[in-house]
Structure formats: structure tokens, C-alpha cells
Amino acid sequence: MNLSRSEELFEKSLKLMPGGVNSPVRSFGAVGGIPPFLARGQGAHVWDVDGNEYVDFLGSWGPLILGHANPIVVEAVQKAAADGTSFGAPTEKELQLAELITNALPSIEMMRLVSSGTEATMSAVRMARSYVGRSKIIKFNGNYHGHADGLLVKAGSGLATHGVPTSAGVPQSYAAETLVAEYNDISSVLELFAANINQVAAIIVEPVAGNMGIVPPNPGFLEALRKVTRDEGALLIFDEVISGFRVGLHGAQGLYGVTPDLTCLGKIIGGGLPVGAYGGREEIMRMAAPLGPTYQAGTLSGNPLAVSAGIACLTELGRPGIYERLDALGVLAEQGVRSAADATGTQVTVNRVGSAFTAFFAQSPIRDWSEAAGADTERYARYFHCLLEQGVYTAPSQFEAGFVSLAHTDADLDFAADKIRVALESQRD
Ligand code: HOZ
Predict the structure, then answer these.
(1) Does residue 75 sit in the same domain as residue 65?
(2) What's the domain count of the chain?
(3) Which residues are known catalytic residues?
(4) What does the alpha-carbon distance between residue 101 and residue 390 come to, in Å, rounded to a whole number?
(5) DSSP SS3 for 56
(6) I need a labelling partner for 29 at 20 to 30 A (CA). Which of 97, 139, 228, 385 fits?
(7) Are residues 127 and 227 in the same domain?
């Protein structure tokens, strides 16, 4: 595969940006080699600057549920741009997007638009602390909630990819406010509450973990979190930045029937442009300035381009049969990996929720971080490169998710299944 132009650009980028990238996992640190510099995307396909074409299962890490350059989204953004790219004042479109979100997720009675998932989780935690009047929060080992200081503790995703449990630069005093439980293990949560009586403001959880690879909640786990937070006077925050509008129109909270106090969103609600949101029970959200004493703001919050893309995307997702189609595509993707694994005698554990999935190089179920961390990352790296060379682009880390979009066709999935078989075959022991 010719990557000469990408190599040239990467070399220059390395001098100007740490790791040559604007977000660590993109540097291919976990899998080695040169990241192709992408030039164009259309539907389920992307092209790099050297003209190589790939079937894309990265989907910009989740937002592109309609595929690349969806014409309805593109038109909405073009129209919005022609009317002005930013006002820093209220617009009707912000209200439209808020209505689409709150209609789909009724637990969100009142909400704020921000510009990223990181802002959403950071602000939701602040709101919870302010409402409950306590400072500690509980998060889960291997759950990632963006890169706000207090949430970068045992945080999965890029940190796990690069073997860093907790980021440097987070003051110990601050990290001490973050208690870490094990995902899918309610007893670890109960122990933390018992050891920190009346100190925990909230639990923040990815209801479907997506940043240690996809790890679904065990039956009863989310319900148990709901119960313990109610019993202990703490709030339950669902970080649905990945799962929101991905695992169903009503998110993981709709899929599993558990209602959080606060929800964080991002990715899909911006249709591929930078948007985040947080919201929940009105009495909690009334803590936000100017109604309450808790500050949060943003010049580009509710940016008209991003909001227009989000409206277009969520409107499409509201059409009948969309999530059935996404699920069917997800099943095909899963089957593709499983049949390739069977054909080659490879041990692979596939976790999938709807159109999000991860193939772990592991022999047993993956239900928490310690099991995910046991997956064979070297094999994953070889598998990843073999796929890339054959024109299949997937996450450059074992600890991230693959995403299928509505733009993927059965032919794309057949193509990928064939290449996956070759990839597994070529790196058999
Ligand atoms: N770790 C992020 C996704 N889980 C990476 C996002 C990016 O590099 O764009």
C-alpha cells in the first residue's frame, strides 16, 4: 500500500503537534505504523491522501451513524453557514435540537448544549456536586468520560491504549475526589459508598461501556446503580456520549429501561460536527447559571452549523425502521467476525450492542476492565494492519469500538468479512 504522502504529512505534523495528532489514539501508538491522512469520505468509505480507499468502521469514533457526507446533513450545514456561522445569541435551531433530544430521552427535562462530550460530562458532574452538596464521585475502571481532570482516573480509551491508568497533571487532591469501582460489579460500588458515607455526589457510568471496547452492562447492573444512588442520596449520571442515539433512539436508558438523573450526550447529536449536551431532571438543571449558582458557559455552545447538522441527523434517525436496519447491519458485522474466527480456528470474543461492536482477541467473555485488559493487543495490532492494507479501516486500538452506519451495505460487510478472514488467517499461531 502506498502511503508516501501520508508519511510526508505525518513527519511534518510530528514537529508541530504532539504525536503528530490532535487526539492521542489517532497516532497509531498502540498498533504502530503511519496513520493514513484522510482526505475524503462518502457513505461508508473513506479515501486517504494517497488515494487508498477503505470501508470505514471507525465512523469518526461514533458520530457518523448516517455515514460520511450524508447529503441531508451536508445541505443543512451549507444552508446554515450561508446564514452566519456563529451568533453567541439564542437561535430557534438550538430549541429545535433540544426538542428532538428531550422527545427521544424524556429523562432530560431541561438541558444545555455544549461543544464536546468532555464539556458535557465535566458540567454534569459539577451540577451533581452542586445539587447534592457533596464532592466525591464514583466512576468505573475502564469507563472514559472525556478529559476533564477529575474524570481522567483509570479512564480506558486513549489512556488504556497507551498504558497510562491516570493522566499526569491531575493533582492528587483532585483525583482523590474520584472513587473507582469495577464495571458490572455492584459490590465494588456498595463498598465505596460504605467507606465514604454521605460524601458521594454521583455515580457516572457509561451504560454501555464503549471506551474499553464495547462492554454491555450485565443484567441488573444499571438497575442496581439506580437503586443504590437513590438509597444513598446521590445522583446517577449516564454518559451516553457513545450510546446516545447509537444503541437505539432512546439511548441505553431506553434500551435497558433505567432512568438516570442526568445524561451526557455528544457525537451523534452533532451529526459529525462538534456538539455535546447534558441535561436531566429540571430541579437539578435549575442549579445552572443564570437560574442557579453553578457556572457553565461557552461562546460556541449551540453553534448554528453544529446544531443544524444535529437536527438533520436526529430527524433522519427518527424515521421508522432505522434502528432495525442498524441492528441488522450490526448482526451482519458480528457474523462476519464470528464466521472468520470459526473458519480460521481463532479465539475471538465479540461484544456488540446494536451497531457498535468490538472483536477482542480473548478466549473468554469480556465484562469489565480487567478482562478487556487481558486481550492480546499485539495480535490486535497485526489484525488491524492486515485489515488496513486490504482496505478496511477500524479503530487503531483494541480498547475502542467499531461502528456500522446506515450507509454500510451488505456488500460492504461481505467485503469486510472476507478481509477479516484473511487477517485472522495470516496471523494464526
Ligand atoms: N478516545 C477517543 C474515542 N473514544 C478518541 C477520539 C479521537 O481521537 O477522535
Answers:
(1) no
(2) 2
(3) 144, 239, 267
(4) 39
(5) strand
(6) 139
(7) yes
Instruction: Give the confidence band of 39 by pLDDT, cuts at 50, 70, 90.
Output: very high
CA distance linking residue 75 with residue 405, whole number of Å? 19
Inter-residue contact 226 to 332 (CB < 8 Å): no
Decide whether any atom of ligand 1 lies within 6 Å of the 158 Cβ: yes
Last residue of a domain, one of 317, 338, 353: 317
Please report, for the domain that includes residue 361, its CATH number. Answer: 3.90.1150.10
**Residues 295-340: tens digit of each pLDDT:** 999 999 999 999 999 999 999 999 999 999 999 999 999 999 999 9
Q: How far is the CA of 309 from the centre of ligand 1 (A)?
A: 20
Same-domain check for residues 76 and 169: yes
Q: Are residues 203 and 274 in the same domain?
A: yes
Same domain, 228 and 245: yes
Q: Determine the distance separating the centroid of ligand 1 and the alpha carbon of 429, expressed in angstroms.
A: 31
Q: What is the pLDDT of residues 207-265, one digit of tens each?
A: 999 999 999 999 999 999 999 999 999 999 999 999 999 999 999 999 999 999 999 99
Question: 160 CB under 6 A from ligand 1?
Answer: no
- The overall pTM is greater than 0.90: yes
27 lines ligand 1 (CB under 6 A): no
Separation of 61 CA from ligand 1 center, angstroms? 6
Beta carbon of 206 within 6 Å of any ligand 1 atom: no
- The answer on 307 and 180 residing in a single domain is yes
Q: Cell match 430549541: residue?
A: 95
For the chain, counts of helices (H) and of strands (E): 15, 14
Could you tell me whether strands 200-205 and 136-140 are parallel, antiparallel, or unpaired per DSSP bridges? parallel
Nearest CA to ligand 1 atom 8: 23
Same domain? For 399 and 274 the reply is: no
Task: Kindly give the distance from the C-alpha atom of residue 101 to the centroid of ligand 1, in angstroms, as a whole number.
Answer: 23
pLDDT the model gives residue 165 = 60
**371 close to ligand 1 (CB < 6 Angstrom):** no
- Please give the residue range of the domain that contains residue 170: 71-317
> Is the per-residue pLDDT at 428 higher than 80?
no
User: What are the cell numbers at 153?
Assistant: 482516573
CA of 156 to the centre of ligand 1 (A): 11
Residue from 17, 21, 25, 212 to probe ligand 1 pocket by mutation (most atoms less than 8 Å from CB) = 25
- CA-angle at 352, arms to 137 and 237, nearest 5°: 20
Per-residue pLDDT tens over the stretch 85-134? 999 999 999 999 999 999 999 999 999 999 999 999 999 999 999 999 99
* Whether the CB of 48 sits within 6 Å of ligand 1: no
Are both 157 and 232 inside the same structural domain? yes
pLDDT above 60 for 163: no
Of the three residues 289, 317, 345, the one that is the final residue of a domain is: 317
